[in-house]
Amino acid sequence: MITTRGHALETLAGIDTLVFDKTGTLTEGQLSLSQVHPLGDLSVQRALALAAALERGSEHPLARAISAQAEAPPPVERLQATPGCGVSGEIDGVTYRVGTLAFVCELSGVDTAEAPVATPGTSPIYLGSAEGLLALLELSDRLRTDARATVAGLQALGIEVRLFSGDDPAAVTRVGEQLGIAQARGALLPADKLAGLRELQDQGHTVAMVGDGVNDAPVLSQAHVSIAMASGVELARNSADMILQSNRLGHLLDAVKQSRATLRIVRQNIGWALGYNLVALPVAAAGLLTPWLAALGMSLSSLLVVLNALRLLRGEKKASVPHREAGVSPLSPVADNDSRSG
Description:
- This protein is an alpha/beta fold.
- The chain is built from twelve helices and 14 strands.
- The longest helix has 37 residues, at 249-285.
- It is elongated and about 100 Å long.
């Protein structure tokens, strides 16, 4: 874990609520296209080509998964991304949209209730034009192998874990159930995530946010302490107070434990130093303590403080053993265009 701002370590020790993004954070972010369902006269190949043309240039994992399966997408004009919703553009004089159901249906005025429902556990992306819905694309992703253990570990420390995502609510709820996260909210725009985090802060919670995408940048900046995945986009990393360099959620749990241990040791050392001086100084001033004995006492006091601080190295070594392959200790101090889901 790399810290980029001075307050991060101390603040991380005091959090009582942690909010996760989904895609690329709790999941691996390596989405794959599982099914393409044409809803009109388009073939599967044509629907995929149109969607890939619109997604061209986007850094979002959904866009990369679609583009990887398409062959020779047609040229597109007037390409425009709407954060949290999708992308629109003109192909052969026709305006198309790809993205969330509400965003795509807005172009044609089709009732969202008439749209087909995606397979449970997949992330649905819709393609449409002014004529209506044209295709449903289903993408799948895998949870990170250490996601469940990390969430359970955070909850065991008394930290409330929540999930804020722009993805389909059904998919978000499913992930929440798999990981034991009771508060899992989907279909959130960047502004909705920001409002949800501010609501938690107004209730008196000290909140940490973990994310990786463009749509996470505002909420990362608002959180008391924020952590970005190293695999995330540059904007998210620049907005974060800490960067999870190894991309392993287990290191996040280690960092919380280590930050709490560090703060506890600091308080112990300050308490000891204050207590020692409150006793030793009046005794020395009264002439009841010889200079050599006072110097010895001060040296022993300093040695005790140092030895107490060295306990942190033992704790860090234990925390680092399960993650040795990553080559990163839990705490190492150092001085997209489209964002539909997360």
